[in-house]
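Deviations from the work plan: none for this task. Representative record:
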Amino acid sequence: MTAPSSSDAERQRDKDRTRADILEVATREFADKGYTGARVDEIAERTSTTKRMIYYYFGGKEQLYIAVLERAYLAIRALEAEVDVEHLEPEEGIRRLAELTFDHHEAHPDFIRLVSIENIHRAEHIARSEVLAGLANPALDGLTKLLERGRAAGRFRADADPLDVHMVISSFCVFRLANRHTFAAIFGRDMLDPGRRDHHRRMLGDMLINYLTS
Amino acid sequence: MTAPSSSDAERQRDKDRTRADILEVATREFADKGYTGARVDEIAERTSTTKRMIYYYFGGKEQLYIAVLERAYLAIRALEAEVDVEHLEPEEGIRRLAELTFDHHEAHPDFIRLVSIENIHRAEHIARSEVLAGLANPALDGLTKLLERGRAAGRFRADADPLDVHMVISSFCVFRLANRHTFAAIFGRDMLDPGRRDHHRRMLGDMLINYLTS
DNA sequence: ATTAATGTACGAACTAGTGAGTTCACGTTA
DNA sequence: TAACGTGAACTCACTAGTTCGTACATTAAT
């Protein structure tokens, strides 16, 4: 008779598990080597299944890459949606949002690399994804509310644009990770040094508040 | 008798010209497709010479790519060295330096893309270049002097680090170009819009001065 | 028995790099 | 001054190795 739905050790014939396994391995491979540099055979080999399954479940290299992008973006969007911005003072909310981005990016180097890679490809794959093209952004909504409350209270400048603020946060958080290799090669500075990390985390908040309250 | 050293139209057998031609075409190709995506055959075809000459002059794909990187970095370093920071007020000098970076990056999209690509490759090629590894940075010297003068005059905060300031400038100027594709795909905002461009250029200076004088 | 899921082997197209020979400019010699 | 020698610049065709994708066979579940 043998166990009906294999309890744990066997894990044969498990659609979800196979898909998830492929996605996980593909994320690492694409983030590591880029879209062109990644090898389908290599991904297949690191998987517990075969190349045939990649084509069976995803269709091809490009569709697999798009699925990887979708998973990565949906993860950070879900995280952003969790921040409860309503119960925070405007200043504190801005700092909280900036630190969330700071921490998420540092904890997910694969995401940072995928975004860089996708920009090298001029976001053509995001544009081709029905899930991602025009995906709503919870962080931006929170930012908009915070800026409005801060302005209503006379504490924030009137001309601050939510998307501009988001861009400043992103540029700072993305740059220190995405460009850390050329930075290290040329200036000899390690962006991941714990002391510097804390300093930068505080510095970003300071800069934002200084700008918004000036 | 025929002209000895071909006056202009013929241009056969010209070492320098051939090398320069290859470098120019290779810069566009690498910036466009990335290191792995770039095709030596494609570069050769867009050149007025042949693939064999690429190997003759540069040795291989990787050495050609390194030569491209060296040319791009030396160009911006030369530009930075031209700024005469000594005769400017600290605030004005900071703004001038930031605007120089802002303008250079916008005028050289190939450079921005090459830097992104090189970071995806973890700066391994820069590290392999004798010219680039540890290349001195004129902009950083100017920045250091400006911060010192500003602090001595009691106008700048004492704890401002030159490399941190440089990073803020770079992150802002690089991000708005390097990540403009994903930004456009997700937020629908065009970073190259002239009005927004001017706004961002001013905004960066404001943010820096606000931070330094707080 | 039928179908979903999986594995194996293969092929057509591509890609970096090379082997081998050619052309040209120029200096040297007969 | 004309034939010759030489090395740099150049051309063409080829190869050894990849790489994405698929045809076909097989196994498990219902």
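Residues 4-5, 12-13, 39-41, 51-52, 55, 60-61 of chain B lie near DNA strand C (CB under 10 Å from a C1').
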